[in-house]
């Protein structure tokens, strides 16, 4: 294997004449090029830091300020410079020495003042959310004026992090509003006696303990950038001791109908190269910030830990380890781990060169070392045994070096030895099997602690598995859209290779070495048993809904997301004969360091629509529209910081710090989400032409069930005529069946569309 080749910078031998040095010029050249690459990267980061720090100002703006200042003070720019220089040279006029610095300080102060004014005005403008009240396609004059002002104060050519200092802080809702909305959300799920009891607990909390907890939360909101995000990351994710596989990690799938190549190494070459190009743009902050309506910026903080990041297990709580730079990736194939450098000759490897490295790994027939094949099962099982094993067996020697190579890699790649993907002859089973493979695989062939795993299957299909604590799904979704769009552009040759030529002198991958004792192997097998029990219980069902898409839903003058959410409520009622507490993820990235908020989709209006199923069509249609309007209003509240669940969560954390016991908060936080839902948004529509090339439709992604007796539903609205749904539940629950629920969702959507009688209107 080529990994045995190691470039040595120098060798020496001791002779009677002294020490004889033999320099290796190629190794020294690579050292020079590597250092040059690192310094270029540091300079770019330094420059981008300055540009972001003064945004919406710019160096050009500074020159404008200088020219205007001198104009208003009666000097032209050229004359002013000459006068300053002449006066500075008069040594007998000591009072003239401060003249130039004083003028420069005036220019700088004026420039900084203008920047701060623009930044704070923009922050005030972005704190107004009246634009969300407008109906789709209509803009009021006040919103129009507001958008013009936002564009004026937003500056020109923003980079990824340009708006971070201009975003408003997440507001803390009032106790009164949160309690009122909570009672409203649980009313359809409780009988009169239960509701009166909960109402009493709520009133007691609102009058007594609530205001005290609220005071501490207000104090934190004034001090911290975001009063929710750090506690959310720590207590919801990092302190969890259960397996993160299935319970936390989520997945994304390949194109639904297109198979670019069946060459596994070639697909890996183009995919890995596209990811590294994205990382380079991310390092240089060249990715455009996401802007709603092309005007309203969203927080970009979560992008910072996409690469070079790993979750590190701890006995009581995990931590997130992020390194600024990593020049290699970690690759797993048939029980062996490899370290693959992504740079040579001071440049990023080309797709054909990466394919060359992947082919070397695929051709390697060496056997795994003892304990190596199933080592990654530690990341799939409970967190505490993994933390203890890591401290005991992986804190020194070759094990530590190999573990560092994985945890500090840019990302993790699995060259899977199974074939997955959509099979037209067996569409249901093929997609279900594909989803389960990307979600958990064999439980030991993914490194679930890495920020994300790229999985390349034997037949060239690919998938992605992402760890959840460092960021939410739209962040990794942005990368995934880039990768999918780059694949057709990079292309393949007629004989199914990446474009370009192999490198004749490229050093091969480095095989990672392990010394895993028998005691550690027992821990690995124990973790694998836990992980397999969890994975085998997951019932996945993925189906493309092709009867209609958002095109027809918009003709109904209804929000597509609201339409689907009400259909899910209708389907759940038909599936189980009852309503349940429903979680829909909404983002709060309109605020600095915002992550998510919950939309409680099971509303009084949605339940009323189902309960009047036998009423005349006009009445049911009226109730459907009311339910959709209610859902949209709740989504707006969640996006603008007026949701209830993150507020209640933070109040609960404060109560624990104070040692106060709250029956109200304890009961609220223990309520199970038996229907957990999320929409996967398409953020870069310009990358895909689904009108001319509908075959390049994304399959979307999904996640495991949240409750033992509940469903997890993820959906992606692709173009105008397709909605892909991902449903998960547990085989062990007698109440759930993912395929049955999928059939109920399909029928519910068809029944709801029939209420609008679009065919009659068209006639």
From TrEMBL:
What is the top-level taxon of the source organism? Answer: Eukaryota
TM helices/strands, residue ranges? 50-72
What PROSITE patterns has UniProt attached to this entry?
Answer: ACYLTRANSF_C_2 (PS00440)
Per the Swiss-Prot or TrEMBL record, the active site comprises 468
Q: Which GO terms describe its cellular component?
A: mitochondrial outer membrane
Cross-referenced Pfam families = Carn_acyltransf, CPT_N
List this protein's GO terms for biological process. carnitine metabolic process; fatty acid beta-oxidation
Say which enzyme class the record assigns.
transferase
InterPro entries in the record? Carn_acyl_trans (IPR000542), CAT-like_dom_sf (IPR023213), Cho/carn_acyl_trans (IPR039551), Cho/carn_acyl_trans_2 (IPR042231), CPT_N (IPR032476)
Catalysed reactions listed for this entry: (R)-carnitine + hexadecanoyl-CoA = O-hexadecanoyl-(R)-carnitine + CoA
Query: What's the protein's topology in the membrane?
Result: Multi-pass membrane protein
Question: Where in the cell?
Answer: Mitochondrion outer membrane
Enzyme Commission numbers on file: 2.3.1.21
Residue intervals of the Choline/carnitine acyltransferase domain: 170-747
Q: In which pathway does it act?
A: Lipid metabolism; fatty acid beta-oxidation
Record GO terms (molecular function)? carnitine O-palmitoyltransferase activity
**Chief localization class?**
mitochondrion
Stretches assigned to the Carnitine O-palmitoyltransferase N-terminal domain: 1-47
- UniProt keywords, alphabetically: Acyltransferase, Fatty acid metabolism, Lipid metabolism, Membrane, Mitochondrion, Transferase, Transmembrane, Transmembrane helix, Transport
Return the similarity comment. Answer: Belongs to the carnitine/choline acetyltransferase family.
Q: What is this protein called?
A: carnitine O-palmitoyltransferase
């Amino acid at each position: 294997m080529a990994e045995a080749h190691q470039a040595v910078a120098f060798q020496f031998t001791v002779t009677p004449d002294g020490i004889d040095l033999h320099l290796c010029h190629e190794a020294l050249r690579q050292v020079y090029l590597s250092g040059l690459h690192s310094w270029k990267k540091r300079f770019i980061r330094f420059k981008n830091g300055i540009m972001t720090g003064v945004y919406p100002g710019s160096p050009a703006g500074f020159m404008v300020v200088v020219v205007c200042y001198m104009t208003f003070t009666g000097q032209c720019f050229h004359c002013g410079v000459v006068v300053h220089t002449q006066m500075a040279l008069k040594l007998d006029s000591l009072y003239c020495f401060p003249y130039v610095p004083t003028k420069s300080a005036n220019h700088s102060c004026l420039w900084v003042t203008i920047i701060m004014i623009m930044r704070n005005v923009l922050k005030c403008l972005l704190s107004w959310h009246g634009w969300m009240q407008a109906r789709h396609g209509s803009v009021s004059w006040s919103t129009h004026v507001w958008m013009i002002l936002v564009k004026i104060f937003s500056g020109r050519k923003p980079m990824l992090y340009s708006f971070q200092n201009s975003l408003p802080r997440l507001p803390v809702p009032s106790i009164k509003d949160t309690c009122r909305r909570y009672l409203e959300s649980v009313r359809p799920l409780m009988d009169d006696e239960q509701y009166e009891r909960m109402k009493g607990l709520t009133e007691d909390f609102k009058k007594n303990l609530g205001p005290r907890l609220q005071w501490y939360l207000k104090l934190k909101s004034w001090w911290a950038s975001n009063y929710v995000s750090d506690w959310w990351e720590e207590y919801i994710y990092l302190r969890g001791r259960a397996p993160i596989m299935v319970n936390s990690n989520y997945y994304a799938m390949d194109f639904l109908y297109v198979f670019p190549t069946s060459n596994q190494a070639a697909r890996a070459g183009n995919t890995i190269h596209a990811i590294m190009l994205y990382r380079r743009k991310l390092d240089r902050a060249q990715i455009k910030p996401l802007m709603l309506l092309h005007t309203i910026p969203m927080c970009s903080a979560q992008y910072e830990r996409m690469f070079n990041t790993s979750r590190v297990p701890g006995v009581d709580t995990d931590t997130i380890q992020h390194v600024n730079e990593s020049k290699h990736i970690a690759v797993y194939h048939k029980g062996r781990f490899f370290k693959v450098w992504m740079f040579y000759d001071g440049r990023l490897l080309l797709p054909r060169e990466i394919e060359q490295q992947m082919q070397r790994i695929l051709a390697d027939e060496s056997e795994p070392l003892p304990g190596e094949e199933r080592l990654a099962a530690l990341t799939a099982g409970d967190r505490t045994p993994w933390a203890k094993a890591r401290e005991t067996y992986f804190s020194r020697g070759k094990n530590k070096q190999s573990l560092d190579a994985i945890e500090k890699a840019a990302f993790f790649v699995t060259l899977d030895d199974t074939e997955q993907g959509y099979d037209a002859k067996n569409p249901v089973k093929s997609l279900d099997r594909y989803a389960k493979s990307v979600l958990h695989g064999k439980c030991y062939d993914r490194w679930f602690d890495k920020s994300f795993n790229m999985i390349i299957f034997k037949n060239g299909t690919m998938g992605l598995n992402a760890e959840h604590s460092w960021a939410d799904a739209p962040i990794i979704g942005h990368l995934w859209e880039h990768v999918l769009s780059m694949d057709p552009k990079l292309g393949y040759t007629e004989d199914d290779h990446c474009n370009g030529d192999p490198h004749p002198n490229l050093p091969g991958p480095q095989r990672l070495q392990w010394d895993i004792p028998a005691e550690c192997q027992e821990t690995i097998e124990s973790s694998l048993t836990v992980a397999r029990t969890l994975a085998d219980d997951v019932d996945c069902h993925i189906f493309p809904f092709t009867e209609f898409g958002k095109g027809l839903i918009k003709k109904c003058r209804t929000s597509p997301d609201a339409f689907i959410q009400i259909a899910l409520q209708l389907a759940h009622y038909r599936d189980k004969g009852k309503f349940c507490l429903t979680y829909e993820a909404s983002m709060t990235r309109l605020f600095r360091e915002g992550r998510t908020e919950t939309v409680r989709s099971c509303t009084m209006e949605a339940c009323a629509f189902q309960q009047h199923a036998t009423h005349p069509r006009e009445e049911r249609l009226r109730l459907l529209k009311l339910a959709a309007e209610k859902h949209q209003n709740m989504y707006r509240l969640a996006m603008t910081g007026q949701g209830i669940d993150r507020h209640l969560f933070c109040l609960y954390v404060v109560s624990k710090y104070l040692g106060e016991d709250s029956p109200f908060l304890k009961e609220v936080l223990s309520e199970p989400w038996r229907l957990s839902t999320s929409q996967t948004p398409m953020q870069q529509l310009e990358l895909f032409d689904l009108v001319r090339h509908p075959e390049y439709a994304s399959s979307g992604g999904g996640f495991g069930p949240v409750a033992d007796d509940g469903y997890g539903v993820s959906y992606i609205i692709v173009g105008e005529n397709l909605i892909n749904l991902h449903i998960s539940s547990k085989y062990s629950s007698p109440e759930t069946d993912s395929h049955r629920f999928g059939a109920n969702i399909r029928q519910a959507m068809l029944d709801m569309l029939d209420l609008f009688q679009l065919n009659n209107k068209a006639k």
